[in-house]
Design a protein that fits this description.
The complex is a heterodimer of chains A (112) and B (115). Chain A has no helices and eleven strands. Chain A is an all-beta fold and 112 residues long. The N and C termini of chain A lie far apart (38 Å). Chain B is built from no helices and eleven strands. The chains are: A mainly beta (112), B mainly beta (115).
């Protein structure tokens, strides 16, 4: 039973355009949501997060949106750059659980 | 300096063998984890240790035994390896005091292939 799902295994976007990565979750008790970025042969690295009490968090070119009623979050990257090509993992945490529940990742390819 | 380092990076071994993956973090964190990325690409937690004490064990077979000699190290020993153990294993650490998810640091992963 996967509590966090990323239904798009891959996404291809032209350089300079907006990339939108989506994530759905089932557990309404999640209190924190995160996006991790992973390059080949490397471990995931933290990108941006959002608390469940907010609906938007922005950091430079990256913005995460949270829709709690739909149990959906998305990551917007604008403008997309070639260096953004990576696998993006959505993750969620339960207060006090001290662990992250990850989705299966979406491979983003930015085309020049 | 690598914050979370794990060795070996690649491991190919036969069914039935016993193998270990080592992990060390130099961040001064209190909590360390092992995550497994399975064939469906989900990253799933296996274990977590806080100051050498086991705090999470996610229904992992007994063949998997984590060992934490000190809070900077968390090794993973696997007995009687099976084909289904083939996966990428990620070590990670966090400062649990500030745990809100964004302070988990991952190692580069260990690719285990059982043949």
């Amino acid at each position: 039973d996967q509590q966090v799902k990323q239904n798009s295994p891959s996404l291809s976007v032209q350089e300079g355009r907006i990339s939108i990565l989506n994530c759905d979750y089932t557990n309404s008790m999640f209190d924190y949501f995160l996006w991790y970025k992973k390059y080949p042969a490397e471990g995931p690295t933290f990108l941006i997060s959002i608390s469940s009490i907010k609906d938007k968090n922005e950091d430079g070119r990256f913005t995460v949106f949270l829709n709690k009623s739909a149990k959906h979050l998305s990551l917007h990257i604008v403008p997309s750059q070639p260096g953004d090509s990576a696998v993006y993992f959505c993750a969620a945490s339960l207060q006090g659980a001290q662990k992250l529940v990850f989705g299966q990742g979406t491979r983003l390819t930015i085309n020049p | 300096d690598t914050a979370v380092s794990q060795t070996p990076k690649y491991l190919v071994t036969q069914m039935g063998n016993d193998k270990s993956i080592k992990c060390e973090q130099n961040l001064g964190h209190d909590t360390m984890y092992w995550y497994k990325q399975d064939s469906k690409k989900f990253l799933k937690i296996m274990f977590s240790y806080n100051n050498k004490e086991l705090i999470i064990n996610e229904t992992v077979p007994n063949r998997f035994s984590p060992k934490s000699p000190d809070k900077a190290h968390l090794n993973l020993h696997i007995n009687s390896l099976e084909l289904g153990d083939s996966a990428v294993y990620f070590c990670a650490s966090s400062q649990v005091t500030f745990f809100s998810g964004n302070t988990i640091y991952f190692g580069e992963g260990s690719w285990l292939t059982v043949v």
